[in-house]
Write a structure and sequence with these properties.
The protein has 575 residues and is mainly alpha-helical. It has helices spanning 2-9, 16-32, 42-51, 67-70, 82-92, 98-113, 121-146, 150-162, 164-170, 176-198, 205-221, 225-242, 250-280, 296-310, 324-353, 356-382, 398-414, 423-429, 434-451, 462-472, 486-501, 520-523, 526-533, and strands at residues 476-483, 508-514, 538-543, 554-556, 569-574.
Length: 575
């Protein structure tokens, strides 16, 4: 037992730098393992195409096209520059251009050095994975400064290293890990500023400048970064209201004035982007998917969707396995883990709030997290835009969750207070410090679950569709969809890329029928014309086709095919 307790306490005595490097290496290995194993989905195709300076509109509509034509926007474009990337983003997409410009420069560097000849999804995921690795020392800095404890920083870094949610974001060819770095920076400035006010010392102008810069860059990466900023304001207002009201000293006036400078400067940056995107029409209907379904489940699902994001921030098991017994077992283990963890965390928070060292950062970070969640639910229920459907949008407060957990799990090393919990905790833990080790091991299991594609699977599974398609197709084929935005082009590109990567190439053409065309009813007849004019026999595979389809001389294949995420499909055999 004595040896056991000595082993538990060793975390406090390991060299600080060596331990941080250790967590960073583990996080790097996890983030770069199987980086290109999962097929890209529509958002990742948007990253690829726009970063190359190419245009989705180069893919012809309402006519048969070849595989090469469909995938043409994924080719190097030596004529494209930064201005091309920016203009395309503002015209066709719904995101600010900073990350795409950096990605464009990264791809250009690799091309110039001759490192790569062809762009693939692995190349596109390297930057997000790298930024994800940087978030490990980043969260260490945030947590260690917030709680004035290197141990809290180390625990936060270890949790970030194995976070299933963090690995999920890092293995997406998107900008969320880049934005996360600036969430960390902005939160750090918030905590330091509040501590300066609490300790009645002046907020330095360099902090004002760094805070303003972090906020401005964050808004230039993702517009939803504004949710982070709004919650920071809510946190400041909340803390101002709970403190004793007394006459403001000159020092406090000066500090509030400097915070006001940050708010005004950040607002000007946000206003600039607002004036740019409003005339363009935000996203060209690309955010229509987050509109809620108008039924009773809409009012019930958002809290559960949020819960489905919170849990994988620290742990995940194979809940998306094809084996029902494994799914049930995984769910039960996660439930037992939560039943154990929640009371344990609450008890540690109570102890921490009585400690001057921990109380302020706990209140600040918990208030901030509550603010963002409140904004999510307000937008979901009042604006009727269900942000909780997009797990990736929780990047806006993800670092705060990891930082506050790191602080909470470090409390046993700083306080000898005993829990008022049942005897079962004494049997499981033996030592309060064991709580961290249990959480970390569950996080590691969760990260492995993501890497094995048993959790956080992609929203689209083109590899499954292509597998069924190639095992079934027996004639020349046309894969057809209705086109409304670049989303549908990305869906078809997913299929096309899987066909290209597969050695069993088939004689397959593609057709994207423009649903936005004024002549859509007539254009929909294009498919019938193609069927009539194409050399028989022919197979028509409709993918996510929005309207009923009737084809002369064609019979619907009534065989029951497996469900595939992202692809609703039917097979027609034309003779």
């Amino acid at each position: 037992m004595k040896l056991y307790r000595q082993w538990i306490n060793q975390l406090l005595y390991v060299n600080n730098s060596i331990l941080l490097v250790f967590w960073t290496i583990i996080g790097g290995i996890l983030r770069f393992t199987n980086l290109g194993a999962k097929s890209p989905w529509t958002d990742e195709f948007a990253t690829m195409v726009f970063s190359l300076g190419n245009d989705f509109r180069s893919v012809p509509l309402n006519q048969l096209i070849s595989l090469d034509t469909l995938l043409q926007p994924l080719q190097f474009n030596t004529n494209a520059g930064i201005s091309s990337v920016i203009s395309l983003l503002l015209e066709e997409d719904n995101h600010p251009p900073l990350y795409f410009v950096i990605n464009h420069l990264w791809i250009g560097l690799l091309s110039h050095l001759g490192v790569v000849e062809n762009i693939d999804i692995t190349i596109m995921r390297i930057l997000p994975a790298f930024f994800g690795v940087l978030s490990i020392p980043g969260i260490y800095i945030l947590s260690s400064i917030s709680f004035r404890s290197r141990l809290a920083g180390q625990i936060s870094a270890s949790l970030m290293a194995v976070s299933p949610y963090g690995i999920y974001l890092a293995q997406e060819a998107r900008h969320y890990t880049f934005a996360t770095l600036f969430v960390i920076a902005s939160l750090l400035c918030l905590v330091v500023a509040i501590r300066k006010i609490k300790e009645e010392s002046v907020i330095p102008y360099w902090l004002v400048l760094v805070w303003l810069l972090a906020n401005s860059i964050g808004l230039s990466i993702h517009y939803f970064f504004c949710l982070t900023l709004i919650s920071e304001i809510i946190t400041l207002i909340f803390l101002y209201n709970i403190q004793p009201h007394e006459k403001l000293s000159n020092l406090k006036r000066k500090n509030y004035y400097r915070i006001f400078l940050v708010i005004i400067g950040t607002f000007c940056t946000g206003l600039m982007w607002l004036l740019i995107i409003i005339p363009k029409g935000y996203g060209n209907d690309m955010i229509s998917w987050i509109h809620p379904v108008n039924n009773v489940l809409y009012f019930i699902s958002p809290p559960f969707q949020l819960l489905a994001v919170w849990i994988p921030m620290i742990s995940l098991l194979p809940v998306e396995s094809s084996s029902i017994p494994i799914v049930i077992l995984s769910g039960l283990i996660l439930l037992l883990f939560l039943i154990f963890l929640v009371p344990y965390i609450l008890q540690e928070v109570k102890i921490g709030l009585r400690d001057k060292k921990f109380s302020l950062p706990l209140i600040v970070l918990i208030s901030f997290i509550s603010g963002v969640i409140g904004i999510f639910l307000t937008i979901t229920y009042l604006a009727r835009l269900d942000l909780t459907r997009g797990a990736r949008y929780s990047f806006t407060y993800f670092p705060a969750v990891i930082a506050v957990l790191g602080g909470i799990l470090s409390i046993p090393w700083h306080s000898n207070s005993e829990h008022k919990l049942s005897k079962i905790y004494s049997i499981i833990l033996l030592n309060r410090k064991m709580g961290f080790y249990i959480v970390w091991i569950m996080g590691l299991l969760g990260s492995i679950t993501v890497l094995l594609n048993l959790g956080y699977q992609k929203y689209y599974r083109p590899e499954q569709f292509v597998d069924i398609f190639q095992r079934t197709v027996s004639h020349d084929a046309v894969i057809v969809t209705t086109h409304q935005s670049l989303v549908q082009t990305g869906e078809m590109m997913g299929i096309g890329l899987e066909l290209q990567n597969n050695q069993k190439l088939t004689n397959t053409s593609f057709l994207l029928i423009d649903k936005n065309s004024k002549d859509y009813p007539q254009e929909a007849e294009t498919l019938q014309t193609i069927v009539e004019n194409t050399k028989e026999p022919l197979e028509v595979w409709t993918v996510n086709f929005k309207d009923p389809i009737k084809l002369k001389n064609c019979n619907l294949d009534t065989k029951k095919y497996p469900h595939i995420d992202g692809y609703h499909y039917e097979r027609y055999i034309c003779n």
